Structure formats: structure tokens, C-alpha cells
């Protein structure tokens, strides 16, 4: 039996490197952690980049590592492990670096809510406790935390608690911070208005069931809710944005009290004010309101036409078929190519079809595809 | 406390013209040498403000009611003394000889205080500390410190930010300093906290938290205790020796704030090289004589330390012969080389554990080359042979060893990383820079504690694991284990051959880690370790020992290069 070395001598023919050549003079680094720059003409003292800023202490490095562990655990849905590391990560609130100290509450809030939402042992009380602690952590985030806390409560169906929290948050004042957190405050007021509306609907249904003297007190409460809701909702609708649920609630309130002018004004503002982002629902609401009011076909058609510009495939387009008697006009309206709407007045239906083949098919496709059967039954 | 109150009064006694005041029970000043009682009384804090308080404040020191209760006056070295005491006690519980604390460490500490002129000398830098009496050994009679010394004054007025600028002592320098300090308004709990961090005088060695470990190590080295520096640092990180938040052992009255934080707060673990360098500086500073010799039978001798690391790395016992041979060849086993001699400044300060580990690596390189080829081929050979002959001694199979070690080291490394991430740095005693910060810091602390409690309950039953009892060995390989994971008994057949009287390797090749060593003054180190330049097997072995010792691989690599340079000196010069 051959010895191992003889086998080796037979097997390997190539010579392995004997020495790793390392010329010490070429590599002059004071900080071996960073690679040197090998430019031959560069003076020696410029060859190594220097680190800038304060070196991170091990405390900060371990906290960073801890955060990585938490993130891994969260991604793998290991809530218990995440909670474990969280107990250690919380120390970062006392970090010596002010910069990291400022950034800490946000991170902790996010991670904490995530864990508490999903952990099997956590309950809504735990969440409430956590939210309270986070609110006290810093004034700059107070309203934001309040708002998110309210969302969480709403998602879990705790409407009364959410309402309480909103009322508390609405009354919060803290000097400059109140103006700095203006947006959050407005949102809080808006949601409070929404919940007032919700309470109002409850009172309304209650009132219908009850009768007699109970009905009076309930009615009074109903009215007070209306007043509160109306104020807040009106405020938020003024700001450009997408406020569909608020608008709907507000319209509902106003319609009950028969303030139709206000409704008209609000809805047209919401739909047609160019400052607001384009929102098909706005037009839908306006159209529905006008229909309820029994407006003329002409006004209804004009609203629908504008809606058609935005969403040609909307199901309300079917109403066009009802409103318009002339089939040709229906086709005209429905199949007017958006891009070439200015040029070439279409007179013939065949020409329409030719023309429409050139432009984006979207309008026809969507419309025809989605509502083909309906369209044909109504038109023809 | 009496001294504090009477310190500021420097009028000589009417009768005996000596400035040596004390306080009677009623609070009146009396002269200690002639017992003459004067009218002056200790100032009592009153809430009503007298318009002429300025006059009083000049000589007395305006004592506003401070938001922070000042507590005792204490000096930074007193704080370190407490910490050292705790550390020595911890080492004692770990099994170190009790002589270390009471005789060795204590005396080294006193020597340090004397050399740095903080105590035990005729012209101290500051007043003699009262707390020296706390150490167990009976104290010497302290020399009477001078009441008024320029240095003492300036440190006092510097640290007490509330002191009015005019001081009745008339030292211009201190006035200037005091007025400058007032604007910064950072005070410290200790009397000399601020000045402690200023640029040190030439030749003076400043105390710091890593230095406490240097003290401990020097004491251990003097007694030749079987604790290496890497073991010591490992115990520190594992929490068996107080280091992080060691200031918790201070008594309640010693308030810690302001500049003290920079001295006593720990934000990073001690680094091996740092502590080692400080140790050599310290031994030189203390003018210590040559340490007790490290002989063949001593634990720190490479021959014996190699056994420990061979066992821990699960390598065959036969390798020990080879390590002894290498040690003999390069004369690293001589007591002159190994023993720390502070007098001889040019002598190399030996890192015993790193040296032992480096020797093992050199031996592995001698036998297996570690070039990513030879050892694997040999492993295949040995593996086949082991399969054929089940009885008898097993040949050392590098591949199997690699798999076993890699698996367990990976597991341990992962655990270690998690432990590091889990480490809690803050303690119940919060630290703050100034009274303004105090309320914020306390509130934050309370909040953190609350949240930790909340999430702690969510983490479930596997809370704080039992703190493992400290052990010298991190990896244990039992021979009785039948799954064949223990390689201690394996033999190195197949790669050795008889040559005359002794065994030698069949392999005649060897690769040097570095051809030329760098100049330490220019580069800062002797070698530069770049992983990609070296074979994977070599990196693996380096990383293994780097994990065991908790030192960076580059440190071990440097030691390996040095050994190789000595070992192959003749061969290199021939070239």
C-alpha cells in the first residue's frame, strides 16, 4: 500500500505556492480595516482613507445588531423572539448619541405595535398601555401616536374607547407643538367628527324606535352630535384631499336636516375644485345627490359627461343610455375617443368604428367588455 | 465632614498662629493645637437672603441649595479603588489566591497612588482620601497633607461651578481658571473629575476603566495565577467580574455626575491589545522589578498552555510533542524571554495565550501545510484507512475534524453574537451630566423599565437564562462520547516518518505567512492580515482560535509571523 505522500507526489504535478509574497513596503496602512489606495504616484500619506466622525461605541453596535435580530424575527413571524430582543433594544432610548436618541421612539413605536398586534399573548390592554407610554415619550410625536392608537382601536371595534381618546387628543395643547402638529390635529378632529356622525346615526335609529319623552332627550343628544360632527367635517372637507367617508357622512347629516344648498355647494366644490385631486367618487356623489333631488336630465348628463372623461368604464355610464334617447348620441358620447375628441366631428357610426380603432381601445374595451350585454339590451 | 467646613477658613489662630481648625459639637471653630475657641461658627443654611451674603460667600464658598445633593466629597482615585476592590473580590470567588487582593493588588495600587502623587506622598496633587481606610488591610499613617496647596485649590474651584470667582486666597491662577469654569457650568460629583481628564502631565499615567483590568492582570501575573488575559477579558464580558456599571458599588453618598461620566461610564468592552499595552506601561510606571520567573512548570509557559488549547480545539495530544519541539527550537521557553521585566524596556512583552495559540498554528502548518490541498488529501487517505481498520488507533482525519469543529464553533459563535446583542448596558443607577438632565434621564429610565417589563412578560418563560458558571474551557470534548467527536486520542500516522532518532514530517514544504515584517513605527503593526491572501484552511484555523481567545485574527496572525521568522531565520538569511 502506497504511503500517502507517495500518492501525493504522483498525483499532483503542479507546484503549490511556497510563499505568499507580501511586500511590506507597498502596503502602508495605519488603519488596516480600510483598504489602501494603490496609485503609484500618490504620496504615501494620502494612500489610506480616514474614517470620519466618531467611532461607534460597542453599545451602539450591539444595539444595531439587536435591531437586525428583531427585524429577522419579525419577518419570520417569531413574535416571542422579537419581544425578547425588544426588551434589550429598548435601552437605545438612553443612547448617548443624541441623534440616535431622537430616532429611537419612532423605531420602537413601529416595532412595538407590530409585535403587540400579532403576539398571541398580547391584548388590547397591553396595546393601550404601550400607547400611553409612547405618548409620554416625547411631545413631538404625541398626536401621531394618539391617532394611530385610535386607528388600532377602531380596527378592533372599540369605538367608544376610540372616541374617548380622540376627545382627549383634541384638547391637547402644548405651545409651539400644537402648531407644528397641526395636520395631525386636523385629522384627529376629522375622525372625531366621523365618530360623532356614527353616534348620531345610532341616536337616530334609537329615536325611531322609542317614542314619548325618551325620544326628546335622545333627539337633543342627536342634535348635539350633529353640531359637533358638522363643524369638524366641514373643516376637513375644506382642505384639498380625498375625504370620501367624511363627505358621505356630512352629506347624510345635511340631507337629514334638509340643508340642500350646503350639500350642493360642498359636493360641487369637492368634485370640481381643481385644487382637489381628481376623484371619480366625488362626481358619483354629486350625481347621486342631483338624482335624489330630481334634477333635469340636462344637468345630470353634464355631470355624467365629466365623469366619463375621468372614468369611461364607470357603471354609471349605463345611466347615459337611460337618459339619452337617441342611440346615435349615446354612441357619440360613449365612444368619443379621448385623444381625438377635438378633431373630426363624427357623423357616421361606421366612421366612429374606424376612428376608434386607431386610438386607445381602453374606452371601448372596458365598456364593451364589462357591460356588453347590458349595453346592448339597453341600447338596441 | 469637619474638614470640609473648616477648610475654607485660613486665618491663623490668635494664640498659636497655626491654621488648624476643627469644629466643636455646637458648630464653633476651635484651634486644634491650642484648643482656642473662636466666635466663628459653622454657617447654617438659611432660606432668607441677606444682602451682604457676598462677603460671606467669598471666604466660605457660596452654598446655594443645589438641585443635586452633593453628598460626600470624593476623588476619582477613590472611585477606582472601590472598583478594584470589587474586581479583586470577584477574582477571589473565581478561585484566585486570596493573597492577590490584600497583598499584591493593594500594594500595587498604593504604589500607583504614590507615583502619581495622589496620595502617600508629601506633596500630594490633592487631599488624602478618606476612603483609603476602607480597604481591608490596615492603612499606613498618612502624611499630613498641606492645607493650602495651589494644586488643591485649583482643582477645588474648578469642579465646584457655583463658587464665586473671587477667592480670598489671592491666587491669580486659580481665579482665572475658576472664572473660565463658571461659564461651562459642568460640575462633577468628584472633586477632581474635570481636571482628571485634562491632558496628563508628562510621565503621569491616568487611570481609566480598562486600566483597572490591567491592574488585575498585573497582580495575577505577579502571582503566576493560571488565568490568561483572554480568560480575564472573557470573564469580564460574561459579567463575572464587575466592569460594566461597576460604579454601582460606590456608596450612596458618592454622587456621580458630570465629568465623572466620561471616566466611569463604559460604552465599549475592553480590547485585548489595549489592556496589554496599558499593562506594560503600568509596570514601567510603577518601577516594578523583574516579575517572578515563568518556568516550565508554570501555567503560562507555552508548553503547558499549548496543552490547554490543544484540548480545547479538539486536536490530537501528539501535537504536544511538536509544540514543545518548536518552543525549544526558537527558545521561547526560556524564563528570560517569558518573564515580564519592566526594567528592560526593549524586551518584548509576551502575550502568553496568543503565543501558545500561534505555536499550535505553526505546528499545524508544519504537519499539514494548510494550503487547501495537502491536508484534504491526507484526510481522504486517513479516512479510508480508518474505515478499513476499525480497531486500533484512529488516524487523525483533518476533514472530519474540520466538520466537527466548524459545526460546534458556528453554534457557539451564533450564541455569542446573540448574547452580545442581548447585553443590557444600563443599570438602575442612571447617570446624568447635570441637574437639568436629571429629571429627563430618570423619566426615561422609568419608561424603559416599564416597557421592558411589558415586553418581558411577552417574551415568555425563557427569560434570563442561568448565568453559566465561569470556566476556563469553552468547548468540551469528552472521550467517552461514542459518536467519535473527540480527536484527542488520534494519532498522526501517515504524515510522519522516522529519521534517525526522531520523527519528522514527510512533507518538506512550508509557506511563510509573510516574507518581511513591517516597521512598527510606520505601520503601527508588524503585519497586515488580509483574509483573501491566505488559504481557507489557514483562515479557518485562525478564526477558530480567534473565537476561543476573543481576539482579532490579525493579532494571532502577527504572532504566527513572528514565530516563523524566528524559526526560519537561518533559512531566510541563506536566501
From TrEMBL, chain B:
Residues 268-457 form the Rrn7/TAF1B C-terminal cyclin domain. One of its GO terms (biological process) is nucleolar large rRNA transcription by RNA polymerase I. GO terms for cellular component: nucleoplasm; RNA polymerase I core factor complex; RNA polymerase transcription factor SL1 complex. Its main location: nucleus. It is found in: Nucleus, Nucleolus. GO terms for molecular function: RNA polymerase I core promoter sequence-specific DNA binding; zinc ion binding. Signal peptide: none annotated. Pfam families: Rrn7_cyclin_C, Rrn7_cyclin_N, Zn_ribbon_RRN7. Residues 80-251 form the Rrn7/TAF1B N-terminal cyclin domain. InterPro entries: Rrn7_cyclin_C, Rrn7_cyclin_N, TAF1B/Rrn7, TF_Rrn7_Zf. Residues 8-39 form the RRN7-type domain. Coiled coil: none annotated. It comes from the Eukaryota. Keywords: DNA-binding, Metal-binding, Nucleus, Transcription, Transcription regulation, Zinc, Zinc-finger. Belongs to the RRN7/TAF1B family. This is TATA box-binding protein-associated factor RNA polymerase I subunit B.
